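seq:
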Amino acid sequence: MRLLLVRHAQTPSNVKFLLDTAVPGPGLTELGERQAAALSEALAGQDIEAVYASTMIRTQLTAAPFAAARGLDVHVRDGIRELSAGDLEMLPGDSERGLEYMRTVFAWAAGDTGLRMPGGESGTEALARYDAVVEEAARDGAATVALFSHGAAIRMWTAARARNVDVSFAAAHPLDNTGVVALEGSPGTGWTALSWAGATVAAEGEGGPAGRPLDATGAPRAGCDDAR
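struct:
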C-alpha cells in the first residue's frame, strides 16, 4: 500500500503562526484556495483510489477540489486531525511557551508517548487515533490512499512509524502547506518513507543517516518552512 500524507493548504492562523488546533478550525486564505486547486495537477501522477480528511475544515477544503476532479468521496475522520495544543492553543508557535508544543510532539515521536501535552492529549492517544485511520484505509484495500492531515501530526506519525525517518530529520524538516510525505508498507509490516516534500528519502542504512533527504544528484537537500 502507498500512503500519501498531505498537509492542508494555508490558513489565516498559519499566516499569524498560531497554534490553532481546535476542531473545526479556520478555512483557507486566498492563497490556500489556490494551493488546494493546484493539487489536482501536483498529484496527477498518483493513482489515488481513496481520500481521507480530518474533521478540521482546512483539510476538507484542501481535499475537495482533488477529490471532485477524481470523482472520489472524501472520508472524514477525526483520527487524523492536528495534535491538540491543549493549554497552548492559539499561542504563537515561536513564543517561549508555544515552543513547548513541538518539543512535546517530538518527544512522542522519540518514544515518550506517556507524556501529555499541557491540558491536552498524550502521545499514546494521538498515535492510537492516527493509527486507527491508517489501519481502516489499509483494510479497505486501496493500493494508494491520500490522507489530508496536518503538519505536526504528519511529522510526528512519520517519525514514530517510518523505519527510515528519525526524530532529528522530522524536527529539521518542516512541511509546507500542501506538502506531501509518501510512504509504502502496511500496518502489519511497517512503513518506509519514499519521499518528503518531493525529496527522495534514503532507505535505512543507505546514503548516510536514516531519513536524510537526497536530491537528484544524491546530495543532501535542505528543508522548508512550516506552521500549523
